[in-house]
Each structure stands twice: as C-alpha cells, then as structure tokens.
Amino acid sequence: MTAPLHTGAEGFLHRFDGLRTRLPGARLGWVQQLREQAAESFRAQGFPTRRAEAWHYTDLRQVADAGFDEPLSILGAAKTLPAPHGAWRAVFQDGRFRDDLSSLDAAPFVAASLAAGLGTLEDRLGALARPAAEPMAALNTMLFEDGLVVTVPAGVAGGVLDLLSLGSATDRPAAFHPRHLIRLEAGASLTIIETATGPAQARYLHNPVYEIEVGEGATLTHVRLQQESPRAFQLGTLYARVAAGGTYDNFTLNAGGKLVRNEIHASLDGPKATCHMNGAQLLRDGQHADTTTVLDHAAPDCASRQTYKTVLSGRSRGVFQGRIHVHQVAQRTDGYQMNQALLLSPEAEIDSKPQLEIYADDVKCSHGATVGEIDADQLFYLRARGIPEPKARSMLVEAFLAEAVEVVQDGAARAALEAAVNGWWEAAA
Amino acid sequence: MPAVTETIDTVQSLTEGTYKYGFETDIEMEFAPKGLNEDIVRFISKKKNEPQWLLDWRLKAYAGWLKMEEPLWAAVKYPPIDYQDAFYYAAPKAGPKSLDEVDPELLKTYAKLGIPLKEQAILAGVEGAGESPADSGRMPIAVDAVFDSVSVATSYKERLGKEGIIFCSISEAVQNHPELVRQYLGTVVPQGDNFYAALNSAVFTDGSFVYIPKGVRCPMELSTYFRINAKSTGQFERTLIIADEGSTVSYLEGCTAPMRDENQLHAAVVELVALDDATIKYSTVQNWYPGDAEGRGGIYNFVTKRAQCRGKRSKVSWTQVETGSAITWKYPSCVLLGDDSVGEFYSVAITNNRQQADTGTKMIHVGKRTSSTIVSKGISAGRGQNTYRGLVRVAPTASNARNFTQCDSLLIGDQCGAHTVPYIENRCMTAKTEHEATTSRIAEDQLFYCRQRGMTQEDAVGLIVNGFCREVLKELPMEFAVEAQKLLQISLEGSVG
Predict the structure, then answer these.
(1) Number of H helices, E strands in chain A
(2) B409 part of contact set with chain A, CB < 8 Å
(3) Which domain of life is it from (chain B) (predicted)?
(4) Where are the alpha helices (DSSP H) in A147-264?
(5) Residue A40 located in a structural domain
C-alpha cells in the first residue's frame, strides 16, 4: 500500500512538514531556521511558471506534476561504478554520501559528507545561495539531505577530484537535493570532474545546489557531465564567488535527462578575477535542456568568457539564457559570450536570450548568438571529396562540438568531455 | 519636418537643457472634461461624427482596457500614472478647414518648428528657403499636421489624389473612406493587443491615413508632424498605412512638445499593411520634450507600431532616431507573413540626463524565405538608461528564413547604463539567425586622434557618435538625416568634458 502522492509545490511542502524533525540538522537552530525560511519562500513562490522571466522558456509542469518522495535512506545499491576520472573520488547515491564507495582519505584537501559535519558549517551553508530569489534553491534549502564539503587549504594543489552522483530506479520516483560546499583558499587549485547519471529506466529529480568560493589567486576547474537517466529531471543551481585574481572555470555538458536546467550565478568579487563558463548541450528525442547563466562583474579589471553550443535532434528543445551584469564599480571589464545552436531536425526548437546589463562605461562587452542547420556548402565540399553524406554530416557536427570542448584547458577534464561527447554522438548515430 | 538648419556653431551655443521646440502656442482650445470614462469615449466619437461601428469598436477596447494591467516588464522606472488626471481631447477651437484658412497662430507654430504647411514651401536650409521645389529639382513633402488631438492641415492632397493616393487625417478617412478604414483598422494591432494599444483604441483622436493604390509609386515623401501643445493632455494618435499590390511609399514622422514640469502621455498606435510586392519605408525622428537635467517633466512615449507584410515579396523598413521623451517604450515590429517578404529595423536611441529608453523590435517570420535585418545603436550619457529589447521568432513554416541582428551600445560617462535583451526563438531547421552585440565607450585613441587635429572635445565626440550611428542614419531620407545628425549633437550636449 502506498499513500497518495502529493504533487506540485504543495507536495514538497507537505513532505517537508513530515520530514522536518528527521532531516539533518533538526537539532541545530540555525539549520532549522534556514529550512523554515526557505519553506516560506518556496511556499510564496511555488514552482516557477513561464510567467517568471527567468523561466520563460522552461515549463516545469511535468516536474511539478510528478509525485516525488524524499527517501530517508539510500534506495539503490550501485553495482558497477564508472571508472574514476581522478585519484580522489566522492560518490553520492540518491543524494547521500557513500563513504564505502568514496576514496578521499589520502587527498591533500579536506572532503567530507555535509550531513556528518553540519555542526561546523554555519558560516558556509547559505553564504551564497539565495532561496528568496531562486525557487529551486529554496526547495533545496528546505529539503537538503547531504552533500559534499570540500576545503582546499591555502597554496595547496588539490589535483583531480571525481564527484559521482547516482540516481536509482525506484517504484516511487525519488527527489534528492544535495548541497555541495566547495571552498578554495588563497592560491589553492583543484579540478572537479563531476558525473551525474542513473539507470536508463530510473525516474527521479536531482536538485543540487552548489556554493563555491574561490579564494584570492585560487583556480577551480569544474567539469560537469550531466548524463542522467533519459527519464530523470535535473535542476541544478550553482553559485560561485571569485576573489581577486582567482579563476573559476566551469564546463557543463548536458547530454542526459528528460528535462534539465543548469543555472549558474557567478560573481567576480575582487579585481582581476576571471570566470569561464562554457558548455555543450546534446539533445535528442523529446529532451529539454536549459542553460541559464548570470555573471556579475562586481569588481574592476575582471574578465569573463562564455561559449555554449547546442546540437538538437528529434523533438528536442534547447534554451540558453545568459546575462552579463556589469556593476558601476567594474571598470575595465572584459566580457564575452557566444552561444550557437545547430538544428538537425525540423521539429527541434532553440530559444536563446543573451543579455547585457551594463552600468560602467569603461568596458568591452560583447555577445553573439547564431542558429542554423548544417552548412550546405561545407557538406557539399566534403561530399565532393567522396565522403558519404552521413559521414560528412557527422564530421561537421563533431567539428561544431570540438570548438566547444577545446576551450577546456585541463587535460583530464578535456579527455572526460571528449569521451562523453563521442559517446553521445555514437548513440545518436 | 523638424528640419531647421543651423550652423554647427548655433547648435553648440545651445546650453544644456535648452530644448528648442519647448515653446507653447497660445491658442483658443476646446477640451473634453478631464478624466477617462465611457462618456469621454462617446464624446470623442461624437466630436468626430463617427459611425456606430467605430463607437462600438472604441467601447469594446475601453471595456477591455479596464480589465488589463499596465505592463511593468520594461527596464524603465516611473511613478504610477493617474489616467483620470488628463484631458483626452484637446483641439483648437476653429476646426480644420482648407489649407488657406488655417489659424495663423498655428501656421506660425509650424513655421517655428520648421514645418512647411504651405505647398510651395520646401524644407528650409536644405536648398535655401524661398526656392520652389521645381527650381531645386527636389520633390516636395506632403505634410499632415496633428496638433494635440486633431489634424489641423494636410498639404498636397489634390496632387496626391490625382494618382489615387489617399493621404488625410484618419478622422477624415473615417468620413470619406469608411470601407477602407473598417477593413484594416485593428487588423495589425488588435484592440486588446496590449495595455496602451487598448487605451489608444478607445480614445484615439487623430492621426494619418495613407492608402497607396495598386502599382503606384508615391511621387513624394508623406509625413505627419505631431505636436503636443496643451497642458495635461495625452496624445493618442492612430496611423494606418496601406500599400496595395506593387506600390511604394516613404513616410516620415516627427514629434515635439513644450517644456513642462508635468509628464504627458503619448500612446500611439501605428499599423502598416503591405500587400504583394509593396514597399513601405517608415522613418521617425522622435524629439518629444525629454524633461530637464533632473528628470522633471517630459513625455512618456508608450507606442505600439507594427507592420504586417501580408503580400509576397512585400517589404517594410522602420528607421527611427529616438532622441526625445522622458521614457520611451517602443518596439516597431514586422510580421512577415508573405513568402519572401522583408523586414528591416534601423534604430538610433539616445538617452541623456535622466532619460530612459526601452526600445527595439520584433521580427516574426512566418512565410518562406522571409528575411529580416536589425541594426540598433544605443547611446547612453548622463544618467540615461538605454535598453535594446528585441524578439526574433521563426515559425516552423518559415523555411530558409534569415535574420541578422546587430546591437551596439556606446556609453558616455560612468553614471549611465546600456542594456541588451534579445530574444531568439527558432523553430525552423532551415532558418538561420545571427545576433551580435557590443558595448563599449568612445575609444580614447579615437578621441585623441581628433583632438590632436584641433577639434574640441565636443566636436570629436559628435563626430565619433555620428560615425557610430552612420549605418542607421544613411537609411533616413536626406532631410531627416541632416536633422538627425544635429539632434544627436544637441542631445549629447553637456555629456562630455
């Protein structure tokens, strides 16, 4: 016997009512307060609808209407894990840290479960996330069950950390809301290669929130491979703050999932900070993927670069919304953003909204957006050289994507990406 | 035409805040009672001796408007507007007569604005006043002059009539060509399209009506000059232009208003219809009073302009130079229905002092092989906020459609803002859309280069700004281009140095 599932915002709030005393931090006043405030703003905002400007192109009705369950323990048992991308690995299943599958002990940085160390995180949890502004962050704050807490001490080169998130196939679709806190102290460096995946039939909602602090002169490379189950939803909200001279380098590949949103809020807070936000979306069938970025230039002499590419086949729909906000103090800002889409099917749709909001005068900001199909001249050129059409098409798509991937500097990260892109392309062809 | 030529020296002698069209004409006016209600709608309709269907149409719009909410999504800030605190009808007491009988006060007003209402007159300064068009070899310009709520004169009517062209005020068209008005009115911008369009549909008082018959190339530029004069009035004009198969027309629009501390609302609706192989070129130099340096007064310019390219191979080109108004909310758009139809949008928008502009275009591609070009140049100075907001939508039917968009912003001073908000929605595989946008300030090396050659800072900025806007200004009819260049310079007065 299963109890009737509540759906929509109401369902999540209803479950929060039942779970509030059993979620991590139930005895910590400040955690309780955070959760209650988040619940209030989620109650007030509800699931975002297309009437909200930030959600104009992504309709969450199918997520709202699916009845989810927040499990209190791990549901699935991971059998075989994909090979790790780095020496250190943190594994999450259904949003919970799997100590038994993780290997972090010898790492030159501190990495541990959020639920286990919650008592010490009052100054970090919620430092960047804005539940009042972003309803999905409110949902995460209300219900987070675990997450990864990483601290790389000053001057330490942390190497490559593999972060694996597994969803499970369950009778009742599960929703999990991990909260990851990543901090690089001054001069530190780290590469995170993150994979989110789940069994092909699994239906779940993965709603992570990241709070990332890059200290002075520190460098964080963050590659996210979103390869969720084709029936799953992922709605991620990432907040990053970069101090003077620091670099945050994000690449997100959206290849899996039924409905996916990758929302990034990065703030360049100190002079000469740098942010790269790049990504590719590879979509087929009825997939919907949304990349939304907000880049705040809040200090002078900062630079930002964004390149996003989307390939759409089937009835898929891609969305790109990118906003560069240059505050008045941010003189000598150098901002660039490009997004390009390749339509492979007459039923696909791409919506793009690149946005510049500029309040400083000594700036150099530009953006570009293009949409089109495979170039007929290029195709002709290849065919004239005896390359059969399917092969020629695949070469051109690969070349289109190669441009997106080649911006990734880190060797391990780039290899992981290329493997993921090739995998998608082989499956599509 | 606001085209009054002066030497650059005169332009420069103008100090900040001098708006040369800020005078007021003292003329006996007739007002409707203040406020807005169904009786006012009936009053306007009765004043214009309108048929029942038009009154019903207005009342329907009014009923719809009452249920609508004011749009707040634009990046502009202003206190709530009290729609009851304005006159919705204000007209000179002596009604419109023939051109020879127009009140001399009005003629003086238009003379002061540089608008030739006398048919032999041509634009002062371009060829030298007093010459006749025949001597100069330049085509005359037909003018419809709208003063507050009514059209006071329309020139060259007879000459145009010989070609079968109808050019008159829309009130006149309702009387003389009701079938055409009824056929097209509200078909491009429906009554309930948006808040301001609904308000306009209920209370519109005058505006121009143009019909170009099949195969006719309009022999002269047509223009309408809008003047707000009376205090506490709103101007709600409605313009309808129909270019029948194979016809061509170029239409110009200018606007000014007196300097006042109050904000006055201007909510116009412009509808353009282009049938097979027809071309409409619509140019605007918008120079409503922008308010003073502190942001007191100025016109709220909340305008809905839309064209339907209904016919195959039809073409509509919008060119706008937006220098005036306290707040601009304006998106001249093209719905490209006919196969191979073309839409163009060329815009220069300047905000100085406390001006705010949220302007751009919509290009809706429906027909096959439709193409559109958007070139937008935004200039922000002082504490001005300038937003480009545009939509390019390609429907699945618009195979091989093509769009190119370029938005450039120039910032002068560190207290202003420049924003770009394009929306690109593509649902057609074979369509190709391209968008690029840049934001920068005037380059130091360009300024240095000019200064080194003995130019003043202000001249140098003027030169660079004109270069920045060149792509758009070259789309304007010659007389407008001359005027626009000067306007740019005046609008930027006091913003450098």
Answers:
(1) 7, 21
(2) yes
(3) Bacteria
(4) none
(5) yes
| Number of DSSP helices (H) and strands (E) in chain B, helices first | 12, 24
Q: What is the pLDDT of residues A239-296, one digit of tens each?
A: 999 999 999 999 999 999 999 999 999 999 999 999 999 999 999 999 999 999 999 9
- Residue-range domain boundaries for chain B: 8-491
Q: For A343, which residue in chain B has the nearest alpha carbon?
A: B429
Please count the structural domains in chain A: 1
Contact A367/B413, CB-based, under 8 Å? Answer: no
Q: Tokens in use for B447?
A: 């300024």
Per-residue model confidence (pLDDT) at position B94: 63
Q: Which residues in chain B (378-407) have CB-CB distances under 8 A to chain A?
A: 396
- Single-letter amino acid code for the residue at B381: A
User: Which tokens sit at A224?
Assistant: 């996210």
Predicted structure pTM score: 0.89
Cβ(A337)–Cβ(A364) under 8 Å?
no
Determine, yes or no, domain membership for A76.
Answer: no
Residue B268 is encoded by which pair of tokens?
Answer: 């116009």
B438 at the A interface (CB within 8 A)? yes
Determine how many CB atoms are found less than 10 A away from the CB of residue B161: 12
Instruction: Check residues A134 and A418 and name the one with the higher pLDDT.
Output: A134
Query: Which of A346, A366, A372 is closest, CB to CB, to B432?
Result: A372
In the predicted model, what is the mean pLDDT of residues B124-135? 38
Q: In chain B, what residues touch A363 (CB-CB under 8 Å)?
A: 411, 439-441
- To the nearest whole number, what is the mean pLDDT of chain B? 85
C-alpha torsion B436→B399→B249→B379, nearest 10: -10
* Domain presence at residue A50: yes
- Cβ of B433 within 8 Å of Cβ of A369? The answer is yes
Neighbours of A213 (CB within 10 A): 23
- Write out the residue range of the structural domain in which residue A421 sits: 8-71+82-428
How much is the pLDDT for B135? 42
ipTM for the complex shown:
0.88
Residue B105 to residue B26: CA distance in whole angstroms: 8
Helices B457-473 and B478-491 meet at what angle, rounded to 10?
A: 140
Neighbour tally for A325: CB within 10 Å = 18
Best of B391, B425, B492 to disrupt the A interface by mutation (most A CBs within 10 Å)?
B425
pLDDT in tens, B202-235: 999 888 999 999 999 999 889 888 888 888 888 8
Q: Which residue has the higher pLDDT, A201 or A427?
A: A201
User: By C-alpha distance, which of B428, B88, B60 is closest to A350?
Assistant: B428
Closest CA to B355 of B390, B379, B391: B379
